[in-house]
Amino acid sequence: MVLMSNLNAKGATAALPPALLQVRGVTLEYATQERVVRATHRIDLDVHQADRFVLLGPSGCGKSTLLKAIAGFIPPTEGRIVLDGTPVKGPGADRIVVFQEFDQLPPWKTVLGNVMFPLLSTRSLPRAEVRERAQDAIAKVGLAGFEDAYPHQLSGGMKQRVAIARALSMKPRVLLMDEPFAALDALTRRKMQEELLQLWDEVRFTLIFVTHSIEEALVVGNRVALLSPRPGRVKAEVNCHDWDLHSMGGEDFQSAANRIHDTLFAEEP
Question: Start and end of every ABC transporter domain (predicted)?
Fold first, then answer.
């Protein structure tokens, strides 16, 4: 794996504390009717507390499969995934996934009901505390006043805010987002990126974010892993702490995006 320095070269990267999440030599495979497909090959990653860590690569490179393995839905064929010293053996409330599909919300539940549902399912908190935590999460994503609305009454962006609120209300160690804004129109996508970054600035959760958009990776992430075409391997890791939404369109930003594109699609030696 190649480590690429901060692409706009504004100072050195500080020493990092021990990783919260470690991915070591992880190979992932799945079976089709015709054959066994190797999605990733011996992936090594370190994700630190409060990172905004992006998995970036072309379609089919295994980034969503890797995210599902971190969530505990897919066991590695080879290697291990460790969260805060404990091996990941299956799904858990310490890792919550937000998908891109708008139909991830039960349509018969209100916004408040959707956010409360996973917390109530754990039976670990009194109902009054669950309601309070859910209302706080709804307010954080800018949906205060919509608690009694149903999913069919919401726009795509609002549904994604509900899904994010539901995830945050669980207070996971790691929030996993699988191309959550890919199906949104350009203006709504930009707004959701802005709101996600504002929310991160307030809560400082640990984020692993999957995208195939270079520009989105640069503005959402502070660290970006570049994955090769299938089977996905880590070609390089980019530090991009200084980019933000206001950088988009600038000459330096576009130059960085072009260098990432060249790295992603360079032929293997």
Answer: 23-254
